[in-house]
Design a protein that fits this description.
ten-stranded mixed beta sheet, single chain, 3 helices, 672 residues, twelve-stranded mixed beta sheet, mainly beta, globular
């Protein structure tokens, strides 16, 4: 090859040693870098897609688990209860004998819900944990709920069954509405709302509507939870039987005799109980000796002996031998007599038949020109002698007797005499009844006497535990407590446990009742602060240094009464339930129609009452009475009531419950 610009031939240059292989590595390096970048980007995109898919699945699993829980909650909430107070929907799943082995709920369409139930707190606790599990591909979510099988009456801060309930809300208009009533408020009649611009934190419900008083209107009442002036009736209060509380397995003391009364003093971790037999009329029995008079009745069989003499006269025309058959029958009426001989008149009927059997004369010796037979019917009267063996009632008997004889007769008249004798049972009165009265020894005769039995102390229990229940038939008295005998020298009742005190009569409160305990530094820590404040506006708030969970339930069949012996600044930590009566001070009467009056007996006016807990009452509760001039004439000048929120999850042991479930908490738990 030639260079077109030169005459010299073209010669290729030999590469230098250092220039060899430099292009290929560069190309390769560039290719690998671009590939790595592309692979890294692709991997990142895939991871992002996977994460998005997992988040989407996790969210879907969460929604599915929550939806399943809502379905089961609806099933439990609408389920009826059996006679033992068991929620039937729950029992069908958790009952160890008849429930499902997998403890999983089935929805109303028969599909598996993947919601399981497990009892917590021990057998019979009434608490169940529901766990709803849902999985979407590789994501799983769980939703848990704590359910109490039966709601407690302790869920209410105020509950009235037969009358209207008057309440006023708080005045603080911002969350958490700290001075507003806390706890459910309900009346099976009406709720009367007082004063304008009031706030309510928790549900307020009534069956027969809301009534607005003292400036309150439907527009200026602020409800921050559900409210319903046409709610369903809450049943069960009138069915509370305090004596059944004493029969629980956790009964500390059950004084169920007809005259048993209890006087109780709460001393922190223990209590002192005096068992009294209250004064009453009593029937006593005395005895005396009395002779026995006895009546003996015998049934005997009656017989009689009868003799009958009878004479028959027959006329014969020829000297022949005849066969004579005589049949006699008669009826007799026997007069009563006792071992006597009586004359019985008998009417006798006789049929006489003569038949010629042979003799002198021609033609067979036919009689009367006939065929040789002659029949004669005659009536006659015969005399019978009867001797009664015993004394029969008026009776009758009959006899029929047939006699056959052969005789040779001569012409003329023939006279025949026959005598019949026999022992014969009286028919139909074969038996008679004989009654005799006799005196036979002595007997003891009781005599009832009514006597009065005075009050008497039966026994004293010094250090009973305060976790469980106690019942007495007559009044239960929370007595006055002196400083010397009280817990930590408080001079009041102090409780550090879970306790229900119940009575079949009235329950009287004569001193303050406080929750609390002594801490490790030997300092008394009340459950709530400002319990003895005289400032009506002072907050009644939890004590952060109190570590206990004390709850007290007071249950009475009739009334719960605050007596005039309580201190001027009175503190009451308890939830009260008056099944048939009401909660009131001792100087107030509440009639069946809800009207109130001053009783005079036990009347008082004191400065302050501060309460922690709730009030459940058949009739309207009244602790203050005002006259027409606006003056307080009975009860407390100031009062503060705070709901004990511990009772939502920890009501007092043995406190009465309602046939409806309560969902306590719901928690989302993500597994992966």
């Amino acid at each position: 090859m030639m260079d077109i610009t030169s005459s010299r031939p073209f010669r290729a240059r030999r590469p230098r040693r250092g220039d060899r292989g430099t292009v290929l590595p560069v190309v390769l390096a560039l290719s690998i870098g671009v590939g790595a970048l592309a692979a890294g980007y692709t991997s990142q995109v895939m991871r992002e897609h996977s994460r998005e898919r997992w988040e989407r699945n996790r969210q879907q699993a969460y929604f599915d688990a929550w939806a399943q829980m809502e379905v089961v909650a609806s099933i439990i909430n609408t389920s009826p209860y059996d006679s033992a107070g068991k929620n039937i929907a729950l029992d069908m799943v958790v009952n160890p004998t008849t429930g499902r082995a997998d403890r999983t709920f089935i929805d109303r369409d028969g599909w598996m819900t993947h919601v399981r139930a497990a009892e917590i707190g021990g057998a019979g606790s009434g608490y169940y944990e529901l766990t709803s599990i849902a999985r979407v591909e590789d994501a799983e979510a769980r939703v848990s709920a704590l359910v109490r099988e039966r709601a407690s009456f302790a869920d209410f801060v105020w509950f009235v069954n037969s009358h209207d309930l008057g309440v006023a809300g708080g005045v603080q208009a911002s969350s958490p509405w700290a001075d507003s009533p806390e706890g459910n408020i309900h009346s099976n009649q009406r709720v009367q709302l007082y004063f304008a611009d009031r706030h309510f934190r928790d549900p307020v419900t009534a069956v027969n509507g809301f009534l607005y008083q003292a400036g309150a209107t439907a527009e200026n009442q602020n409800f921050h939870d559900q409210y319903n002036p046409a709610a369903a009736t809450v049943t069960g209060l009138m069915s509370v039987v305090p004596s059944q509380i004493g029969q629980r397995s956790d009964a500390i003391l059950n004084l169920d005799g007809p005259w048993d009364q209890a006087k109780v003093k709460l001393l922190g971790d223990t209590m002192r109980v005096e068992h009294w037999r209250v004064g009453h009329n009593e029937q006593t029995e005395t005895v005396r000796q009395q002779r026995i008079t006895q009546t003996v009745t015998q049934t005997l069989q009656s017989y009689h002996y009868a003799t009958l003499t009878q004479t028959n006269t027959i006329y014969n025309w020829s000297s022949s031998r005849y066969t004579q058959t005589v049949t006699n029958w008669y009826q007799s009426t026997v007069s009563p007599g006792y071992y006597q001989t009586a004359t019985v008149t008998n009417t006798t009927y006789q049929t006489l038949t003569l038949q010629q059997t042979g003799g002198s004369g021609s033609g067979g010796g036919a009689i009367g020109g006939g065929n040789g037979y002659y029949t004669q019917l005659q009536s006659q009267t015969a005399t019978a002698t009867q001797r009664n063996y015993v004394n029969p009632v008026v009776s009758s008997y009959s006899q029929r007797q047939t006699q056959t004889a052969q005789s040779w007769y001569t012409t003329g008249y023939y006279t025949q005499s026959s005598t019949y004798s026999n022992w014969q049972a009286v028919v139909p009165a074969s038996y008679y009844t004989q009654t005799q009265t006799q005196t036979n020894g002595w007997t003891t005769v009781p005599t009832q006497t009514t006597v009065w039995v005075n009050d008497a102390l039966v026994s004293t229990y010094q250090s009973l535990p305060v976790n469980g229940v106690l019942y007495c038939t007559q009044d239960l008295i929370l007595d006055s407590v002196s400083a010397g005998e009280s817990y930590a020298g408080r001079g009041t009742h102090v409780l550090n446990g879970s306790l229900t005190l119940a009575t079949g009569d009235d329950l009287d409160i004569r001193d303050s009742i406080t929750y609390g305990h002594v801490d490790g530094s030997n300092v008394f820590q009340p459950a709530y602060l400002n319990g003895t404040s005289t400032d009506a506006n002072a907050a009644y708030e939890p004590n952060p240094n109190y570590q206990g969970t004390a709850v007290l339930g007071l249950v009475a069949y009739d009334d719960i009464r605050v007596m005039n012996s309580v201190p001027d600044v009175f503190e009451l930590n308890a939830t009260l339930l008056a099944s048939q009566g009401e909660y009131r001070t001792s100087g107030i009467n509440v009639s069946s129609n809800g009207s109130i009056s001053q009783s005079g007996s036990g009347s008082f006016v004191k400065e302050m009452m501060r309460s922690l807990g709730g009030v459940i009452s058949n009739q309207r509760p009244v602790t203050t009475m005002i006259n027409g001039s606006g003056q307080i004439i009975e009860g407390f000048r100031n009062a503060k009531t705070v709901y004990d929120v511990k009772q939502r999850t920890n009501p007092p042991r043995g406190f009465p419950t309602i046939n409806r479930p309560r969902l306590l908490t719901r928690v989302l738990r993500e597994v992966n």
